[in-house]
Automatic annotation (TrEMBL):
Domain annotation ABC transporter: ranges: 5-229
Single GO molecular function: ATP hydrolysis activity
Entry keywords, A to Z: ATP-binding, Nucleotide-binding, Transport
Species name: Neobacillus vireti LMG 21834
Protein name: ABC transporter domain-containing protein
InterPro entries: AAA+_ATPase, ABC_transporter-like_ATP-bd, ABC_transporter-like_CS, ABC_transporter_ATP-binding, P-loop_NTPase
Keyword Transmembrane: no
One Pfam family matching this protein: ABC_tran
Keyword Transport part of the UniProt annotation: yes
């Protein structure tokens, strides 16, 4: 694999908080990777360290086999941060020209317009007068201005309307097709599923899952079989079967979670527990994701 980003045992602690805890992963050329996780999971901290804006408390980060802050590395990276800040006093065109001039091989203004949906009117506007969504578009254009090989976005679609969002992902896919490496953070599973080839699932500063969207979904989307049963009936026999992941009671129903519901049905009859009104439910993906990332577990 042609390694573009590598983190080895990276930890970041603030005074009273370990924001990122012993994280290791590598990202290869051309990958589109989502850093997925709920608020406070450590996404921005990880991205800031990859960008060289924050220094790890421990561990090592390499980009293109170099330190993140080296000039030859910086020229190959484009980024759009969670907090958009634009230079006041300058018109959008002036900002784009200024930033482009820092790079050895920039994209032209025309190309940036096509890729980001900035309009000619936007170009003539002073940055501080742009709306939130227009600022995001400018920030997207600035990320692409240097024709980067590695593009890193922190929560890129927050504040974008549907049209801007679609255009954004269309451009990202276009970039990926050109062999660019793309990393973005999000707390929407659906967005990660739609746009990424790989998901790094963060929880409490650690990577709790790393795989394709299909792999992550199969891990977090469990099916369940539920039924009524005599409250006196012991369910202990069911626990002995390894196919059953979890059993809990809710509102007089028993819920059994498993990736193999056919087998659960067999077991229910085989163990003669007198189940009535049996239903099979596919776990809702977002709910399962919440459950996995909040750490909450249903009591039996
Ligand atoms: N400068 C800081 N000083 C102290 N604690 C911090 C600092 N920056 C982040 N943290 C803490 O580290 C944890 C991870 O924060 P981080 O911003 O990386 O989360 P995130 O996954 O990006 O969340 P969000 O989805 O809200 O953007 C949080 O508990 C946060 O309060
Ligand atoms: Mg963040």
């Amino acid at each position: 694999m042609n390694k573009i980003v590598s983190l080895t045992n990276v930890t970041k602690s603030f005074q009273h908080k370990t924001a990122v805890n012993d994280v290791s992963f590598t990202i290869g050329k051309g990958e589109v990777v989502a850093i997925l996780g709920p608020n406070g999971a450590g996404k921005t901290t990880t991205i800031s360290m990859i960008l060289g804006l924050l220094k790890p408390s421990a561990g090592e980060i390499k980009l293109f086999n170099h330190q993140p802050h080296e000039k030859q590395v910086r020229e190959k990276i484009g980024t759009m941060l969670q907090e958009v800040s634009v230079m006041p006093g300058l018109k959008v065109r002036e900002i784009l020209e200024l930033i482009s001039s820092y790079y050895p091989n920039p994209l032209g203004i025309q190309q940036l317009i096509e890729l980001t949906g900035l309009t000619n009117q936007d170009l003539k506007t002073r940055a501080e007068k742009l709306s939130g969504g227009q600022k995001r578009r400018l920030s997207f254009a600035l990320a692409l201005a240097g024709n980067p090989e590695l593009i890193i976005f922190d929560e890129p679609t927050v504040g974008m309307d549907i049209t801007s969002r679609n255009r954004f992902w269309q451009t990202v896919h276009q970039m990926a097709a050109q062999g660019k490496t793309i990393i973005f953070s999000t707390h929407y599973l659906q967005e990660a599923d739609d746009a990424a080839g790989r998901i790094l699932l963060f929880k409490d500063g650690a990577v709790v899952a790393d795989g394709t969207p299909a792999q992550i979904k199969s891990r977090i989307s469990k099916q369940s079989v539920s039924f009524f049963v005599d409250p006196e009936m012991s369910l202990e026999k069911l626990y002995l079967h390894s196919e059953i992941d979890d059993i809990y009671r809710k509102n007089n129903r028993v819920y059994i979670q498993s990736s193999n519901t056919d087998r659960v049905l067999e077991l229910i009859f085989q163990e003669k527990i007198g189940a009535r009104d049996i239903q099979i439910e596919r776990g809702k993906l977002e709910e399962a994701f919440e459950q996995l990332t909040s750490g909450a577990k249903e009591a039996i």
